[in-house]
Amino acid sequence: MFNAAGLPAPQELHMGGDPQRVTEFMEAFHKRCEARQLPPLDALVVHVAARRAGFPGAGYFRINGLADPLADRAKPEAVTASVRFWEEQRETCKRWGVKSRRGHV
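^ thats the sequence. predicted structure below, dont judge the formating
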């Protein structure tokens, strides 16, 4: 996805000290999905290494107005709410994918 948008992989942007660029791209992607009445496909983009393995970047939670569940100071109730929200977003994408494959979208 990043390659198609003309951006380097998120890991490269983060290593290059430009995580804000990743967040801006993901926020635009999120809003474009909303505008096109698509599911929140940004929920499917996750880090694949280090501490965030299997989790979206902190920017994903920030653009959705939630606490980063992997932040050192995140309160337990905020962690639960953020993870629950992300799981619901992924489930929305899954249901949309099934409907789409069956020609019901």
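Residues 76-101 form the longest helix (26 residues).
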